Amino acid sequence: MQEESKEKKPRILLVEDEESLVEVMLMNLRFEGYDVSVARDGKQAIDMARQARYDLCILDIMLPKIDGFTVCKTLRLEKNRVPILFLSAKSTGADRVEGLKIGGDDYLTKPFNLEELLLRVSNLLRLHKRAPAEGRELDVYSFGTNQINFSTFEIITQAGKKETLSKREIQLLKFLIDRPGEVVSREEILETVWGYDVYPSTRTIDNYILAFRKYFEKNPKEPDFFHSIRGVGYKFVNE
């Protein structure tokens, strides 16, 4: 019986670099019956989230190596739907909105009341368990006469042809499409889509965008969907 209850413990990934806070949170979360793993920087958090399944991620924003916002964007890009509770020393509305906008589920400002943290953790775990299908991302996205299947990596082009894209192409498409009308910098694309191990030149991104225009635009030289913003980055528009 003991072994059975052990298996049912919700698994939490705690991402925090402040050692004294880690100790307090770890002790209290484990006392509540949670199975907690700790990552102390953003790179380690992404690696751990790729290697194991967690029921919740408590994610500090100001982290060494890779910040919490980028960690969240990377996980969501890779279709990791683990609920994310952001922790931040910043209490500005803009940071809270940004955290929720990129795929976070809740936001708690430091210093926080420990009981409130535990309550939010409990609520997020309950909501996620009750409605696992809610908020599920669409596998197929259509715009104009084009179609993208993010699961099979297949597309229907402007010319009506079926093509299969690479994983990187699909990730870049998803990154742009998830932020319609928003200008995204080359640096942000490199950090989120290509990650921290390999940094290609910005020219590589230009070539991907050119390929997208050939697939999806009626006139690649006068694009309707995939726009370059000189000196900044790119923007996907679907109106």
Notes on the protein architecture:
- The structure is a single chain.
- This protein is an alpha/beta fold and 239 residues long.
- The chain has two domains: 9-130, Response regulator (Rossmann fold, 3-Layer(aba) Sandwich); 168-236, Arc Repressor Mutant, subunit A (Orthogonal Bundle).
- The protein is 42% helix and 20% strand.
- The protein contains nine helices and twelve strands.
- The chain has helices at residues 2-7, 19-31, 42-51, 68-77, 93-101, 114-130, 167-177, 186-194, 202-216; strands at 11-15, 35-39, 56-60, 84-88, 106-109, 140-143, 146-149, 154-156, 162-164, 184-185, 226-229, 233-236.
- Strands 2-1-3-4-5 form a five-stranded parallel sheet, with helices on both faces. Strands 6-7-8-9 form a four-stranded antiparallel sheet, with no helix packed on it.
- Strand 7 and strand 8 (154-156) form a beta hairpin.
- Helix 3 (42-51) packs parallel to helix 4.
- The longest helix is centred in the middle third of the chain and has 17 residues, at 114-130.
- It is elongated.
- InterPro entries: CheY-like_superfamily, OmpR/PhoB-type_DNA-bd, Sig_transdc_resp-reg_C-effctor, Sig_transdc_resp-reg_receiver, WalR-like, WH-like_DNA-bd_sf.
- This is Response regulator transcription factor.
- The modification 4-aspartylphosphate is found at residue 60.
- Pfam families: Response_reg, Trans_reg_C.
- Residues 11-125 form the Response regulatory domain.
